[in-house]
Amino acid sequence: MDFELRRAREKLDNEQRERKERAKLKLDRERKAKEEAKKQRDAIEAAQRSRRLDAIEAQLKAEQQMGESLLAGRGVVFYKILEAVPFQGSGDKVKLPPSCFTELSDQGAFDKGPMYFQLSLVHQEGSSATKDDEKGNNRTTHSGVLEFTADEGSVAIPPHVWSNLFPVDAPNIPLVEVRYVRLSKGTYAKLQPDGIGFSDLPNHKAILETSLRQHATLSQDDVLTVKYGELTYKLRVLELKPSSSISVLETDIEVDIVNPGVESERTDQYVLKPLAFGASESGLVEEGNYMYYKFSIDDDAWEKLVSDDVKIEVKIDAEANGGDTDLYVSKHPLIFPNRHQHEWSSHDVGSKTLILSSKDRNLGTGTYSLAVYGFKGTTKYQVSVHVQENSKHKVGQQATHSSSMDVDTVECRNCKHFIPTRSIALHEAYCSRHNVVCPHAGCGIVLRIEEAKNHVHCDKCGQAFHLGEMEKHMKVFHEPLRCPCGVVLEKEDMVQHQASDCPLRLIACRFCGDMVQAGSSAMDVRDRLRGLSEHESICGSRTAPCDSCGRSVMLKDMDIHQIAVHQKN
């Protein structure tokens, strides 16, 4: 009986204990559920509060941007985020979609003068642009507008603007913020080339002015690309006035060009080293490369050249180490002569000398460039320019007597020279054994028999050479050369082509005075009859007031206007 009571009591205790545990677990679950519900309510309230704050901040930012746009655009508000698409153009003018034309026109932007836009890179997560901007790189520049023909949702950007917005790599989908702004006319600009050599260009500020004619704006820290023939120079904008971004349209800007820093000098940039008369410069040139020098002929030196009948001797002494060079000389404005473009050249094997005479119509006062071209291998050389005085008699030369003409002579049947009759038999016997006449038509030179095997003629031009010089002659004069304009010619024809026919040759514009590419023939038939190049036809279409009547007349018609209206020659 006691055993059964004890079993019942234990069973009751276990049941009570289990009920207590279940009640405790239930209370814990309810407490945790209340805590979780409280956390969720707090999170919802925090999210709602954050959204309200973001909405207020976005509204304030939009109002601020609206105010800035109104201030920057002087009453015109235009703001778009567009996908950037590159196109091959010059200058800084972009192409916008037609919808932008409608929006700007509705706000009267076209009545406020030239339109300018601020272009800023839109940061995207994971893009290299975002990382660069975290380092402090501000991707903002300015531009004008070329036309409204871009695809909807995109902006077509020329290389100048593209390189300033994306100096490293563009993201997969480059987005650009385009904002209408008004810019002040510039008064001052400080530029720094990224390498030496730009200041050597003749009238380099005029070349810069010609390049800026294709631009509407300048922005501080932008890189401006200036082309001179086949050469390209990059100039960084260091300072602008009156603001960090300016308009360059219809304004006079004072430009300072500072020397490039040592850390930014480029080793691949052509440099003109000064070369004085009577002094020599040593150098080392590798195959396919050029080393450039310059020398000047002033008025005093030119008078001496003309009056004393002296000549200028340009000389290269090369070391015999298996290498070889070529020599090219040109007069400015052609400042970097090469295989295609030059006025004088020498292609002798080893050391070489080039004589410039005052009788040459291309020679005169001015600055000249000298190029040492590495034709083969790596060559050490010394280059010099001297004034060579002519003497009427060579050293050791004796005057001939008129009585010598009276001696009875006979023509040698081998060498065709006239020999005194008394010694003709002895001369012909010796001459036939030791000498041979070159059989090539038009040559007739008399050679020693052992030298005849090295005397050869070019199959193409017939010129006579030493056998060791033939390989270089064929490569220099008869190997086809490709002009940058696409024409393929041999050397002599190529030099003539680039001097008078090539559309990429540099000419002095008769209207602006700058050195520009000639371009193709003028579109206007009347301009072609006047001999105007493509650039001169466009440049001459600018108007200027007549000095006599003040009427605006195109520059290319000014001479006709002066004759027809004012009877002036």
Automatic annotation (TrEMBL):
Taxonomy, superkingdom: Eukaryota
Occurrences of domain Ubiquitin fusion degradation protein UFD1 N-terminal subdomain (ranges): 90-182, 185-260
Domain TRAFD1/XAF1 zinc finger residue range list: 532-562
Pfam families recorded: TRAFD1-XIAF1_ZnF, UFD1_N1, UFD1_N2, Znf_XAF1_N
Sorted UniProt keywords: Ubl conjugation pathway
Transcription regulation as UniProt keyword: no
Gene3D superfamilies associated with the record: 2.60.120.380, 3.10.330.10, Ubiquitin fusion degradation protein UFD1, N-terminal domain, Zinc/RING finger domain, C3HC4 (zinc finger)
Biased composition (Basic and acidic residues): 1-44
Region annotated Disordered, chain positions: 1-46
Family of the protein in this entry: Belongs to the UFD1 family.
Protein's UniProt name: Ubiquitin fusion degradation 1
Origin species: Gossypium arboreum
